[in-house]
Design a protein that fits this description.
Layout: H1 13-35, H2 37-75, H3 78-81, E1 83-87, H4 95-101, H5 104-117, E2 131-135, E3 139-140, E4 155-161, E5 168-173, E6 189-195, H6 196-202, E7 209-212, E8 220-230, H7 236-239, E9 248-250, E10 261-268, E11 283-289, H8 301-313, H9 315-323, E12 329-331, H10 334-377, H11 379-387, H12 392-421, H13 428-452, H14 472-495, H15 501-504, H16 506-521, H17 523-532, H18 540-549, H19 556-591, E13 595-598, H20 608-613, E14 620-632, E15 639-644, H21 646-656, H22 663-666, E16 692-696, H23 698-704, E17 709-712, E18 718-726, E19 739-742, E20 755-759, H24 765-771, E21 778-781, H25 782-787, H26 793-837, H27 842-875, H28 882-885, H29 901-929
Parallel strand pairs: 4-10, 6-8, 15-19, 16-18
Antiparallel strand pairs: 1-11, 1-12, 2-4, 2-11, 3-4, 5-8, 6-10, 7-8, 9-10, 13-20, 13-21, 14-15, 14-17, 14-20, 16-19, 17-18
Helix pairs in contact: 2-10, 2-12, 2-13, 2-26, 5-9, 8-9, 8-10, 10-13, 10-19, 10-26, 12-13, 14-16, 16-19, 16-27, 17-18, 18-27, 19-26, 19-27, 19-29, 26-29, 27-29
């Protein structure tokens, strides 16, 4: 429409009002962000880091789970992880029909059906899934030129395995092939290839002819036309039936152990399968389904086990019997591999949940504190808006928009960083975690403002905790939290850490209860100190105590954040310390010392101990003679017997903690005879009336008694022993059965050193192996043995996640303290400025602020240390860290939580120093800057 005054066309009044309102909102938002640029940047940084940590956790767990599952499948042999399907000889009306079933076409068609029968997430690897025809019974080769190590002829397995050309390269000759005429059961001569290892072991060359027995026909002549090298020898194509790649010594069960023979494999041409019908090898068709390891995902473990079961004995194999052959059978040990990995995962998952719940709860508390600090800083502004008629919903929407303008981009940045740093994992859990953090950051300030300004007030009441008693509602909430925490701790101690999410929150709830308890109790010492300092002549200390008593920094939420953070850091440090201690104990129990040089054949050179002692890093050497074939006369079982030097061995036992004892109790009494309780070189008794004192394991002492009784040695001599000491472990022998005696009392042939136990903090494995190179001895180091207990990426991943949890706990503790200090910084600055106008000096102002901060600092630091220590001892019986610590649970009796002084002390000291340092720095800065700003009329 045209205006009456002839002006230009205008928009409808409603649209104009809406547009103007939106413009005012955007302008106000920009103004607010510019006015609080520092606060906005700090909030953005907090949200970005927290969102990145929250998004990174599920992706890191996924990556470690995927790597652990793949490692478990890779470490198992391919003949265990492939699903091996096979069909015995088909029953046909004629031999021609049977031969037709063994040719390439039907085999390839059946292979396609079998690969298609595998259900996701079990994805077959077509390149490594072998198939063909093979003999199931090895056949003896009658050629005398084949090696016969035990006087028995070599036995061979024949296989017409498909796709040989794509899985091997020629080393000599050519690949086998057939003539123009199809191969049948009556074919007298075929070609074959062998691997390099088979050719080298069985002395086979290109052109060699091997004769194998026939079934109701003349022997089958197999001419070797090529020697091949596997392209991927460890792959399933070559390792599902390892004998095709590498020959092995074998023995029939009914023959003596020394009558062994070579068992090897010959690779026929792909279309030569029908010739096996004319042999006694009982041929069968086979299809090996190798899983594609790169597609395995840890979160699909349960579905993967179901898919394997379906293909092995479920609907999958039933359908294959319909479309391929009714006699088809399938078997695999992949299900056992997956079950072992599932047990490992079930032992580690509760520990990861403990870390996630603790650190995640800290993040929520710190985000809530950040919103509280922002609300306190803007208390006067928000109270004025409420007094001017602003509604609570409108105020909340305004604050939500201001916070979202900062938090949403920061959360997106943190999520992007997590996705880029940790690729190859699921995105949905990371996205959900980052969105949760962003949402909490957005609503923290509006919710705090709604609670604080639900009633319009002109003035706020005092927050003097020493004079204001807690409300009944708070008492009920605290008692509820206490009951929940006690129940969670009791359930954790009784059921373990894998029961529920509430049980996983037990460490956090311990910190919550401690924070509530300290918040309740701390006014009493404040009152006592205030009364004690009222008659003091100084001004600083009474004023500091009065200010500390009414300081809002003693609110429950900051104290809860500090104690929870310190408890989480201490608990995570105790897990890492327990893992380290368990691995050290397992390595020490296996090696017996810091290093071990041992031979199982003969004895060590007499000069070797002196040469080893002169090596750098070697502090001491204990010699021992260890035999594992000693036999008590009244028993039938062999047991280890160690002959040692009592003094050196007692020192070693005391240093390692493996069955320490007094050397005098094991030392042989000097009766003037040589050989003590043992027989002499000619077999006669020497000092038999004085048996050798012996140290025994509890099982040996219980089974054979304390003696005296005679023990037969491998060289035919004997020694009489009497058990005088019983210990669970000993350095020289690992296991539950052992005897330890003074080797000076053993016969001369049985007293020579076979084992050297080394002590030293910096043993060099290369130098030790170089020194023992000319002997048959093996060298083992405790440090090397320790690394073998990290068997899965799940274990190393859990360690890294706990290290991050400890660091995050310490960081959130510092951040919670910083937020608490920032909350009270304006009030401290104003107080200091007013006191300066009354004549307080700069040094007195610094002492005042430091003394004001000391109660809170000591409360947080001391309470954090005590709470962390108590949480570790309370929860230790219910937390099993064996799955994280050890590759084999039987390596030690059990891995338990251990108090880590560093994780207890370092975060607490950091909190204490920061709590004192920030007020001191503020006092110094206020003294340099002046007090004009704080004294302006109307400023708070």
């Amino acid at each position: 429409m045209t205006p009456r005054d002839g002006g230009t066309k205008t928009s409808p009044p409603g649209n104009a009002g809406t547009t103007a309102a939106h413009a005012r909102v955007r302008a106000g938002l920009r103004t607010r962000l510019r006015a609080f640029a520092g606060t906005s940047v700090a909030l953005a940084l907090l949200v970005a880091v927290t969102a990145a940590l929250a998004a990174a956790y599920p992706r890191a767990v996924d990556r470690y789970a995927d790597a652990g599952l793949r490692r478990a499948v890779e470490q198992a042999l391919p003949d265990q992880t492939t699903v091996q399907t096979r069909v015995p000889l088909p029953w046909m009306d004629s031999v021609a029909e049977t031969e037709a079933a063994l040719r390439v076409g039907p085999l390839a068609k059946a292979r396609a059906e079998i690969l298609a029968a595998a259900e996701a997430p079990l994805v077959p690897d077509p390149a490594q899934s072998s198939y063909g025809v093979r003999t199931t019974v090895p056949m003896e080769a009658s050629d005398p030129w084949l090696p016969q190590p035990g006087g028995r002829p070599a036995q061979l397995v024949l296989a017409a395995q498909q796709e040989l050309a794509s899985h091997a390269r020629l080393s000599a000759g050519r690949l086998p092939r057939t003539t123009d005429a199809p191969v049948t059961a009556a074919t007298a001569r075929v070609e074959a290839a062998v691997t390099v290892k088979t050719a080298r072991t069985l002395d086979i060359r290109v052109g060699s002819v091997i004769h194998l027995p026939g079934s109701a026909r003349a022997p089958l002549a197999v001419r070797i036309t090529g020697i091949v090298v596997p392209r991927v020898p460890e792959g399933a194509y070559w390792s599902a039936l390892p004998v095709l790649r590498t020959p092995a010594l074998s023995r029939r069960p009914d023959l003596p152990p020394n009558e062994v023979h070579w068992l090897g494999g010959l690779l026929l041409a792909p279309d030569a399968g029908p010739v096996l019908l004319g042999t006694p090898g009982r041929p069968e068709r086979y299809w090996n389904v190798a899983p594609d390891i790169d597609t395995l995902r840890g979160h699909d473990l349960d579905r993967l086990a179901s898919a394997v079961a379906a293909l092995e004995s479920g609907p999958g194999v039933q359908r294959l019997r319909t479309v391929v052959d009714a006699g088809l059978e399938a078997e695999t040990n992949l299900d056992e591999v997956l079950a072992d990995h599932a047990r490992l995962r079930s032992g580690i998952a509760p520990l990861l949940l403990l870390a996630a719940v603790g650190t995640g709860s800290l993040a929520v508390i710190v985000l809530a504190m950040a919103g509280g600090v922002a609300a306190d800083r803007r208390r006067a502004e928000l109270a004025l808006l409420r007094a001017r008629g602003a509604s609570l919903p409108g105020l909340a929407v305004r604050l939500l928009a201001e916070t979202a303008a900062v938090a949403v981009p920061a959360g997106a940045l943190g999520l992007t960083a997590a996705l880029l740093v940790l690729p190859g994992a699921r995105t949905a859990p990371a996205l959900a975690a980052a969105l949760t953090v962003t949402l909490l950051a957005c609503v923290a300030l509006p919710l705090r403002a709604l609670v604080a300004h639900r009633t319009v007030r002109m003035h706020d009441g005092r927050e003097d905790l020493a004079d204001t008693p807690p409300s009944r509602r708070r008492t009920v909430v605290e008692l509820t939290v206490l009951v929940i925490a006690v129940g969670a701790v009791a359930a954790l101690r009784r059921q373990g850490s894998g029961s529920t999410a509430l049980v996983a929150a037990a460490p956090l709830l311990t910190g919550v209860v401690a924070a509530l308890l300290l918040a309740r109790l701390h006014p009493w010492p404040l009152r006592a100190l205030s009364r004690a300092t009222t008659r003091m002549r100084g001004l600083v200390l009474p004023l500091a105590l009065a200010q500390a008593a009414r300081a809002p920094g003693f609110a429950v939420l900051p104290l809860l954040a500090l104690l929870s953070a310190l408890t989480t850091a201490a608990f995570g440090g105790s897990v890492l310390a327990g893992v380290t201690a368990a691995r050290d104990a397992a390595a020490l129990a296996h090696v017996g010392a810091d290093g071990r040089i041992e031979t199982t054949t003969g004895e060590l050179p007499r000069t070797l101990p002196d040469r080893v002692r002169r090596l750098p890093g070697v502090r001491d050497v204990a010699e021992a003679n260890v035999t594992h074939d000693a036999k008590p006369r009244q028993g039938s079982q062999l047991l280890p017997l160690a002959g040692v030097d009592p003094d050196a061995y007692a020192d070693l036992s005391r240093r390692t903690g493996l069955g320490p004892f007094d050397a005098a109790s094991l030392r042989q009494a000097d009766d003037g005879t040589k050989g003590g309780g043992g027989t002499t070189d000619d077999g006669t008794k020497g000092g038999a009336d004085r048996p050798l004192p012996a140290l025994a394991s509890p099982r040996v002492a219980e089974e054979y008694g304390t003696g005296p009784y005679s023990v037969l040695l491998p060289d035919g001599t004997s020694v009489t022993v009497r058990v005088v000491l019983v210990r669970d472990r000993t350095p020289a022998v690992s296991g539950d059965d052992f005897l330890v005696v003074d080797r000076a009392g053993l016969p001369r042939g049985a007293a020579r050193a076979t084992t050297l136990l080394l002590t030293g903090d910096a043993l060099n494995g290369r130098e030790l192996r170089s020194t023992a190179r000319d002997t048959s001895a093996t060298v083992r180091l405790r440090t090397e043995e320790r690394t073998r207990h990290v068997d899965s990426p799940l274990q190393s991943g859990a360690e890294r996640l706990y290290a991050v949890a400890v660091a995050a706990g310490a960081g959130y503790a510092v951040l919670a303290l910083v937020l608490t200090v920032l909350r009270t910084a304006p009030a401290r600055g104003a107080l200091l400025a007013r006191l300066r106008t009354m004549g307080m000096t700069r040094s007195q102002g610094r002492r005042l602020l430091i003394l004001t901060a000391l109660p809170q600092a000591f409360l947080a630091a001391g309470g954090g240390v005590l709470t962390g220590w108590a949480a570790i001892h309370l929860l230790s019986p219910g937390v099993d860290i064996t799955a994280v610590a050890l590759a084999s649970p039987s390596a030690v009796e059990g891995a338990v939580l251990r108090t880590d002084p560093l994780s207890l002390a370092v975060p607490a000291l950091a909190v204490l120093l920061l709590a004192v340092g920030v007020p001191a720095g503020q006092a110094w800065w206020a003294g340099r800057r002046g007090s004009v700003r704080e004294l302006r009329l109307g400023d708070s």
